Description:
Strand content: 5-15%
Structural class: alpha/beta
CATH superfamily of the largest domain: Hypothetical protein VC1899 like domain (Restriction endonuclease-like)
Amino acid sequence: MFLQEMKKNKQILLTWDAYNNGFVVTAQTVFILSEKFGIEIDEIFYLQNQTLQDSNLAEIDVFSGNKSFSKVSKKLLDDDAIKRRLHQCAEIREKLGDNIPKFKNQNVNIKSVTDYQSIYDKLVDLLKTEFLEKENIDLHINVSPGTPQMHVVWLMLNSAGFLPVNTRLWSSQWVKESRKTVLNEVKFKPKTYLSKILKSKYLKAQLPDINPNDTRSPKRKEAEEKLFTFSHTPNAPILLIGERGTGKSTYVRTIVKSIQKEKEAYAELACGTFSNELMRSELFGYKEGAFTGAIKDKDGILSKFSKGGVLFLDEIQDLSNELQRHLMQVLQTGEYYPLGATEPIKANFRLIAASNTKYRELNTKLDLDFLDRISRFVIEIPPLRECLEDIELYWKNVWNEVANFEDAPLIIWNESLEKFIFSQDLNGNFRDLQKLASYIIAFYSQTHKTEVAIAKAINEFKKWKLDDISYEENTYFRFKSTYNEIIADFNKDLAEWAIKKYGGKKEASKVLSRSESMLSKDLKKNRLNK
């Protein structure tokens, strides 16, 4: 069953080098997390602002299994303190067995170990580069190694919202007498107005996580299983179709990324947020001098895909014809040209595309050759109104995502709320649930009365609810259109289509049994002479 194959979150330990007490502090932290808290660390990010000592490097080698205890230099073994730490690292490695984490040595170039601003800036860069945009990780930070200034900066970052959602802080204390580490979790996250601003600035707002293991509705299960199955076919493009807010992007990040090999690249772009020129620049890059302002080479996103990976393009219906042709060339040949380049660059990626436009209407927005290439597999993500079995679970997920502040009310769900939600079309899908939950939380914080909060929330929700605008997609049924306006739009489109299809007005007139003069009036949307 595909649900059982979903990858677990990677557990990462982030810590400064314990300069005075050695790497054994980190080794013991890893062991305590496993033994006491049941957390198996998969990877250690070991930060340092200076060259590691030979003794620390030896401890790392012994712990990682790169070097046996007997291979350590005699000079180090002559120092009793170092020898004792090496023995401890060897013992911890033996106790951990096969659960030895990978090790990443990360130099952080700061001005001084006491310079708050320098430490803060460098750690923000590190977090944004290595962790904030990544999915499926749990981050554990040992805040203790380093100077007091380093400790404080970790707490500042935590309060400001720079740390990924699944982050836990740990404090280790080296007990000199026993030469052992004591580890405790730090649960300190003051809520301030500044922290909320910073968090909203640096963390992208996303739809709530969707866990396929919990899905109950047949239509959702079918879509999830198809996505999982199709994702195992290497490099075959997948097109996701579904209304706005159904979780298409979330599914790509949840299922498709879980199947990727660890070293493969991943990138996503929303086509509707970029102009044609900027989108081309983001995707393909350019060479110095390619246009005014191109003062140096810029690598495009496609440069990440020399060794495979997934490129996810959301809102694909907004991609220009020019960029469709450029992407077709890449999909055909595996090569592309940055703007201004004379030599091609190789790119190997799987394209995943998503659209809230119905599949049969995409052929009016996309080149048919391009549509054929991106839709090897097509999956429709059903709207929430067709998955009522999952509404209560999705409501819980949405509530937890919206009520993410101190003193937020516990989840509210009762018969009257359930009846109202089940009666709605939920054309915004998850976004409608988010809106309704936000209203309830706001009114409950004001009144502390569940039924009053629900009643007020429903009233506001209905007042500002967007009606079903799916009819607007076919261009005829627009708000405040009259009967004649609708018919005029239809006749104009029909006349244009027939003239193009049959090769002229005369031929179209015969097929449609409509005079050429009437077709001319149709083209001008003139409904006076019917």
